[in-house]
Write a structure and sequence with these properties.
This protein is mostly beta strands. The chain is built from 3 helices and 13 strands, in the order αβββββββββββββαα.
Amino acid sequence: MKNSQYWVKHLNLERHVEGGYFRQILKSESRHGERALYTSIYFLLEHGNPSHLHQLTADEVWYYHAGHTLTVHMIYESGEYEAIKLGTDVENGEVLQAVVPKGTIFGSSVENEGEYALVSCMVAPGFEFDDFKLFTQDELMKKFPQHEAIIRKYALKEIE
């Protein structure tokens, strides 16, 4: 049976600043202005190693591949919270793909002890690190105090 370290090794994944492991696998040669039309990564998360709350300036499409259910936690600009579960149990509300709209603050997690999830994430127009913003708990608590439990669990106390 394949575990998280199998995928990290065989897909040549590296640690990601937001949490988990990743590797860019596609970058469009077509352009959208100064940017690639799209980029795509493999992304692996483990229980206890979540993707911390962050924000992008472009839409991100998530595609489920392997492992356990992955939850994408989203706080929209309106203040509404939504959790989308990526996985194969479609009869119980899981989906194989989902979109995080640009400007949404989001992170993701694998809730079950000892489990992992492998997904791909495509950003259009293409991802650039200048478009990526990690948030601290204090920053988010000022704006979204109604989501304290999610913020305390998935936002960093401080950014190194």
